[in-house]
Amino acid sequence: MTAIEIPDGSLFGLNNLPYGVFSTPGAPRRVGVRVGDTVVDLAATLGDDVFARPTLNAFMAQGHRRWVEVRERITELVSGDVPDAAVHSVDEVTLHLPVEVGDYVDFYASEHHATNLGKLFRPGSPPLMPNWKHLPVGYHGRAGTVIPSGTDIVRPCGQRKAPDEDTPTFGESRRLDIEAELGFVVGTGSELGRPVPTGEFGERVFGVVIVNDWSARDIQAWEYVPLGPFLGKSFATSISPWVVPLLALEAARVDTPTQDPEPLPYLTETSPWGLDIELEVELNGEVVSRPPYREMYWSPAQMLAHLTVNGASSRTGDLFASGTVSGPERDQRGAFIELTWGGKEPLRVAGEERTFLQDGDEVVLRASAPGVGGGRIGFGEVRTRILPATHT
Ligand code: MN
């Protein structure tokens, strides 16, 4: 038996307990929970077959009451001695995509980001479209290309046309970018024809991951009118391997910024789901930005209410992301197109100039939030390296 030690200042204390899917050599994928620097095998300790599955979906589908009960059992379990065979060092396991992603939606909920992008993509026009303060703008993305941290991405190719070019050409993206976001994982879905009220967010959404919504700005700029993002986004979306339970984020809840004009009734919240979560963007070992999630105009409860208000159903494993998190300051912007103002104001990173990403660059996103009872809780990281294009 082993007593799990939690290092002082660990972002993975008993007030966090994020879930993931891991494997060890010669053994299948299964569900674990991170405690300090260890992964506890829930299939081997809790005696429920849902943890022997290769994704969190079966457990998530059991519903909110079960999530609360399991969290209490895990707290008891890891406070005492745990069987040696169920304890692994986080360095010795392989972490996988934690969820079989159902539908994937990406929102656009930061007023600072939407304003900056409006100025960059549509100079001379009002930066926010007339609908922006009335509804959380979003689009349906590609669930099949959601990939876990540690998976390299290949530079995408496609049609791109610079403003000074007459016709488009095919080739590798010259403006490859990130979008630092959070993603919300639906635990229990909703039926066709039955919108989800904002007040059900806390019972239906299982947890939160970090999302990097990779964006090829040149492909995006040429294709996005009139139907929105398509191939400039769909080549890859990276997520963190740990799903931080919503139950661990009670101390991070804050009001959303003032919403003026007042949203329509289906978007109002009696107890808002603003979240005080700090993100961090690192490029080649140097932190270049710290986007503050608390600045987001629309809350994730409003996003879920909006994406089902027409009667669309939702399913276990659906993922909806917040949109790029950008704050009011320059060093709080969550994308390089904003950090370098469309590539016109390069950053100096690790001794080199950067506008958009180069082959071999490595991007790491991290996030942390206040924990219940003090201290902070961590979301881990999303780490990705850019490989050269292969099909030019
Ligand atoms: Mn995005």
Task: Break the fold down into its secondary structure elements and pairings.
Layout: E1 2-3, E2 19-23, E3 30-35, E4 38-41, H1 42-45, H2 57-61, H3 64-79, E5 81-82, E6 87-89, E7 94-96, E8 104-107, H4 111-121, E9 138-140, E10 146-148, E11 153-154, E12 157-160, E13 169-172, E14 176-177, E15 180-186, H5 201-204, E16 205-213, E17 215-216, H6 217-223, E18 237-239, E19 244-245, E20 253-254, E21 274-275, E22 278-283, E23 286-289, H7 300-308, E24 319-321, H8 336-339, E25 347-349, E26 352-354, E27 362-370, E28 376-387
Parallel strand pairs: 8-24, 10-18, 11-28
Antiparallel strand pairs: 1-5, 2-3, 2-7, 3-4, 4-6, 8-9, 12-13, 14-17, 15-16, 15-24, 16-18, 16-19, 20-21, 22-23, 22-27, 25-26, 27-28
Bound molecules: manganese (II) ion (MN).
Question: What is shown here, in short?
Answer:
15% of the residues lie in helices and 29% in strands. The strands form 8 sheets. Strands 8, 9, 10, 15, 16, 18, 19 and 24 form an 8-stranded mixed β-sheet that branches. It has a 5-stranded antiparallel β-sheet with strand order 6-4-3-2-7. Strands 11-28-27-22-23 form a 5-stranded mixed β-sheet, with no helix packed on it.
